[in-house]
Hints:
Order of helices and strands: EEHEEEEE
Largest sheet: 3 strands, antiparallel
Structural class: mainly beta
Radius of gyration: 16 Å
Number of helices: 1
Distance between the termini: 41 Å
Number of strands: 7
Strand order of the largest sheet: 2-1-3
Oligomer: single chain
Amino acid sequence: MVHFAEIDANNKVLRVIVCEHKEWCESRLGGTWVRTFYNTPGKNFAGHGFTYYPEAENFAAPQSYPSWELNTETYKWEPPVPRPDDGEAYKWDEETVSW
């Protein structure tokens, strides 16, 4: 079985289902469907509210914080300041744009 995401006219994911063929989704459920990959390196599994990027055949989660930018190689949101890598727990503070 394969996973497919239904997307709207703005490439926002409406739902994700498991079925055998894209054609089945389109004929039985209507809408626009694209494949999403589960456990595939370099591909992000779609979720409700994600955005589909057809040029990369990939999905990105909703933007984490206004200051974060989308990495167009991984399609993951990244902070403008890297998270410290010292084993401590940190929380992003959007007001100060820092950890």
